[in-house]
Amino acid sequence: MKLKLKLSFSACLRTLFCYLLLVSTHAFSQSGTTKQVKGIVRDKVGPLPGVSVKLKGTNQGTSTDANGQFSIGIQNGQTLIFTAIGFESKEIAYNGQAQVSTTLTETFANLDEVVVVGYGTTTKKEVTSAITSLKPDDFNKGNIGNPVGLIQGKVAGLNISRPAGGDVNGGYDIQLRGLTTLSGGQGPLFVIDGIIGGDLNSVNNDEIESIDILKDGSAAAIYGTRGTNGVILITTKKGKAGVNSIEYSNYASIQTVAKKLRNLNADEFRQAIATQYPGRSKEFDFGANTDWFDEITQTPVDIYNNVSMTGGTENFNYRAAVNYRDAKGIVRDNNNKRMQSKVSITQKGFNNKLTINYNLSYTDTKRDFTDQQIMQQAFRRNPTEPVYDPANTIAGGYYRNTGPFEYYNPVAMINEEINGGKQQTFTGSAKLTYAILDGFNVSASGSTVRDSYKNAQYQSRYYPIGIGNNGRAYIGTGETNNRLLELSSDYRKKIGKHDIQAVVGYSFQDATDESFTGSNNNFDVDLYTFNNIGAGAALSQGSASLYSHKESNRLIAFFGRVVYNFNEKYLAQISLRHEGSSRFGVNNKWGNFPAASVGWRVNKENFLTNVSWLSDLKLRGGFGVTGNQDIGNYRSLQLLAAGGRILYNGTWINTYPPASNPNPDLRWEKKEELNVGADFGFLKGRVSGSVDYYVRNTKDLLWTYAVPVPPNLYNTSYANVGTIRNSGLEVTLNLIPVKTASFYWNASVLFSRNRNKLVSFSNPDAGYKLNDLKTGYIGSDVQTWTHQIKEGGALGNFVALKFLGIDGGGNPIYQDTDGNGVINENDRQIVGNAYPKFQLSFANTFNYKNFDLSFNFRGSFGNDVLNIHRLYYENFGYLGGKNILLSALDFPNFKGKAEYSSRYVEKASYVKLDNLSLGYNFNINKLIVKKIRIYATGQQLLTFTKYKGVDPEVQLAGLSPGIDAYNYYPRTRTYTLGLNMVF
């Protein structure tokens, strides 16, 4: 079945928006006869803000303001429902009272807490899959520029790391429940306010209402070909009827280096030269005392300001926010300046049967990039060399030493390069929902995300790597457009003890990506930088470069889900997504992704109803099938590439040879996952948590295999061969050791462990055979691989010669595993594994009157890291021409060179104090300012580890995890002072 849709998406979107506009201008004159009633909601302490107040059986509702007050239109005989997280819901019938006020009773088990799932919401007590829901109170505090950083260490089984350290333009690596692919995308799918694949750069952290993580297959299968690596749903704040306020947030942060590589200072360098090379000091001592690290770093100050406004009535409410963040990195000229703005509007009409939601956001980001090679150059630079040499006019007055290989002045690298980028992201969406009958709604939604960027770089004639090029300019521009149209209907009906929910829908998504780059060099002057790129002489010489590219992909899906709840005791859910992707072969465009899960709330059984210490006990199990189509476009097609020119009939013409083999059977990687778990609560919720065990098999792994030519047109083929298995255990434990009127202590412990195995990745009968896979290539003087993957074995294994010690001559001794008296690659063995045996997190929050204190510890245990810096520089082979590690002096007789072995694969378990925050809340309800909060936060404060490198937390993504990067950016400690105000 072929994937076709002839109707223009833009036409659909225009029609939808016009219809929404027409309806919104007409509908709001329609209203029933109601009486406006006011009231106040309290708890045992005082007024309770943020309580949801709804008319039973309708979509009409409001919320209490900061003083617990509300106002709502109501008719005699109708019933008000009051709900709030952490409190028992309450219903009050209206019979003409002048005021409706009530007091809510606190409950320890938040079983009615709303959880966002794919294409809808449910409550915590109804969840039958492995889902974690986090609210702003659960997020990490402090200077966090990316929403992913808010949940680091907060979800069992979700591993989040930042390989780029303190680089303000660096991103996060995210891995949920282990590695599930060899060549496809490894990160989860992000859904932002219903927009599938939304841009994280457009999300303001202060505007996030909740983050929900769909971890297992039964939860994620509703997203079909994109659900294999899990789904993260981000829901932003919306306006609330009756709540009128202005919120202001501000913070300032400074950063310091948490740890740096300890190389030799000038005095130590001179002493080492005198010891290792007696009488040759004049060759290597240039008379200066330079701290190259200090020369390229700074103490950055970050500033953040955010203003949001919310207000409205039952029929029209809004929320608008704008913020500006100026972030600087520890390396000079490393900046990120970002402005974000967002408007969310909700309108109702036709007696509240019609609801229209509009969301518009715009983000403008300016970046100054840093070359992470600069830090490596500063590390290995001779500390007796000066920074500047005014007599060296060829180098622009910088000191230049052309002797050592790949040896450049890092100060010149910073000063003589402009490397920046601009990015604009626009997101617009609208959703129309109409209540046809009580509990039966139909919806239509459309969204567009447009992301455009321009990166520009200029290296002057004095840039040390390119001296002689007379300047080099580069410009790259691009744009992506992601358009989504979805039509759906949902139904919910409660008949006695039976509660049925259902949703069915259609989804169409179209994405395009185009780019253009150009480069030129050999300029007369550096004056124009990249703004007159055509002036370079390389263009006329034929050595300039131009490149342009455009591609697109399309997804079409039909989906449905049915949820059944009997007496809030027996729970069941089934879902199915039938989806087609243009990325796959003509024989496999479409696929089915089913899921089923069940739950049993055991504590609701008669034999447990009188067990007072048991608050909740739910057993659940689920199975789901998901896919991974994140492989790039056109991989199933035969592609052509521009080849050389040939003379044909007296004319030079271009040739276009094959660049790939067609594969009409290419299909998505398919993951089948079984998850069993339990949710529990004891002592009125003072102890609660969950346990999950999972087994996930990812089949039809995609990999590029060598194939013969002929019969193939090209020497490699991209094909589905292989299976990876992950299995693991996750435990979440929440504790409330103390809870009084003035003091509250909440603690949580997370535990997770995952085991993986490559079951197979060969199919000799089909012509796809691999004995093993060697990855993790180390370049420069070493030039070898570090990891080896074999069928039936674990991923992440370091395979190297086993280091036994140093002999009398100062040479390394390696184990001769095959006993033939010759040390070579055949003697390699498994010497470690990059993945942890288990991970732990421990978080605490204390509230005493108006004070609050929180701290988070996070640990990884049993993982190994290849210390690449020790491998290269814990010897004397580079001393003189380059600097070395101070630890090399601990082995003065070692004569070995830079060589990969088990000596440098270190045990790298660690425990980190990720976050420490202290705050104070002022409640000033009688003034214009309603609330003030001041706080101080420290991030990445302490690391406890035996690892000798900069940081044991390194990249775990990909097929060669656990290598400490050769070119790196140091991690930083961040100290923040902040202020939040509500008017």
Which SSEs are present, and which pair or pack?
Blueprint: H1 9-27, E1 35-42, E2 52-55, E3 61-63, E4 69-74, E5 79-83, E6 90-93, E7 102-103, E8 114-117, E9 120-123, E10 131-134, E11 158-161, E12 173-176, E13 189-192, E14 195-196, E15 208-214, H2 217-220, E16 231-236, E17 245-257, H3 266-276, H4 281-284, H5 292-296, E18 301-312, E19 316-328, E20 335-349, E21 354-368, H6 373-380, H7 410-415, E22 417-437, E23 440-459, E24 472-495, E25 498-521, H8 537-541, E26 545-566, E27 570-581, E28 590-601, E29 614-628, E30 645-648, E31 651-654, E32 669-682, E33 687-699, E34 702-706, E35 716-720, E36 723-739, E37 743-760, E38 772-775, E39 787-790, E40 797-800, E41 803-806, E42 812-814, E43 829-833, E44 838-848, E45 851-861, E46 864-866, H9 868-873, E47 905-907, E48 910-923, E49 931-945, E50 972-982
Mind explaining what this structure looks like?
The chain has 9 helices and 50 strands. Strand 20 and strand 21 form a beta hairpin. By secondary structure, the chain is mainly beta. It has a domain of 73 residues: Sandwich (Immunoglobulin-like), CATH 2.60.40. Pfam families: CarbopepD_reg_2, Plug, TonB_dep_Rec_b-barrel. Belongs to the TonB-dependent receptor family.
